[in-house]
């Protein structure tokens, strides 16, 4: 399997969204950058904040689109085209309504499940075949409540569960970056 060359954290820009459930992808990529002592810089041509680093022997880009969630694909496609990164070399980290807080899962392909960030990335890349790290945030129980739910902060106990799952996912990041995604899944999904 291909090593991962681009890791995209999804979220909304701006202080008012920083701690909301929808920004779980940003939280994870920020944590990875901190661990590797990498600092994000604004990259206008990629519609986001980006940094390149040597992670586990591979050159990897980290990207946080600053376009708002429903236009995330614009940033992903711009960077992928510029650096000739294939969808199979992309990992998108995002909040996942269908998983409970405390659960993180890897998968490739599949639909967008109503996630506007994924929907736009699929449209811009023209394929569903990229990797996803899904960070469970739970579901409000009513579809009409989803928008309000994802744009609000998790309760303290939810936040702690989300952070624990994010940490488990940090521990398998080296396997993912190496392209050893089956091994990463085994380790993460057996938690």
Distance between the termini: 23 Å
- Class derived from helix and strand content: alpha/beta
Instruction: Report the biggest beta sheet as strand number plus sense, adding barrel if it closes.
Output: 7 strands, mixed
Q: Helix fraction?
A: 25-40%
List keywords for this structure.
191 residues, alpha/beta, Rossmann fold, 7 strands, 7 helices, 7-stranded mixed sheet, globular
Structure explained in plain terms:
The chain has 191 residues and is an alpha/beta fold. It has one domain: Rossmann fold, CATH 3.40.50.1470. Helix content is 36%, strand content 21%. The protein is built from seven helices and seven strands. It has helices spanning 24-35, 72-82, 116-125, 146-150, 156-171, 173-177, 181-189; strands spanning 6-9, 41-43, 48-55, 58-65, 90-96, 104-108, 131-136. Strands 2-3-4-1-5-7-6 form a seven-stranded mixed β-sheet. A hairpin with a 2-residue loop joins strand 3 and strand 4 (58-65). Helix 1 (24-35) crosses helix 5 (156-171) and helix 2 runs parallel beside helix 3 (116-125). The chain starts with 5 loop residues before the first strand and ends with a helix. 43% of the residues are buried.
């Amino acid at each position: 399997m291909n090593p991962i060359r681009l890791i995209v954290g999804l979220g909304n820009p701006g202080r008012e969204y920083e701690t909301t459930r929808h920004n779980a992808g940003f939280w994870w990529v920020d944590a990875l950058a901190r661990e590797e002592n990498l600092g994000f810089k604004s990259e206008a041509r990629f519609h986001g904040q980006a940094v390149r680093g040597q992670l586990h022997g591979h050159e990897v880009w980290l990207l946080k689109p600053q376009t708002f969630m429903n236009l995330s694909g614009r940033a992903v496609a711009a960077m992928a085209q510029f650096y000739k990164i294939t969808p199979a070399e992309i990992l998108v980290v995002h909040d996942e309504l269908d998983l409970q807080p405390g659960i993180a899962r890897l998968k490739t392909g599949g639909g967008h499940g109503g996630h506007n960030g994924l929907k736009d990335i699929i449209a811009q890349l023209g394929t569903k075949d990229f990797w996803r790290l899904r960070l469970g945030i739970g579901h409000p129980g009513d579809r009409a409540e989803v928008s309000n739910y994802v744009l609000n902060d998790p309760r303290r106990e939810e936040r702690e569960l989300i952070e624990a799952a994010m940490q488990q996912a940090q521990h398998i990041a080296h396997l993912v970056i190496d392209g050893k995604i089956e091994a990463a899944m085994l380790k993460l999904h057996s938690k």
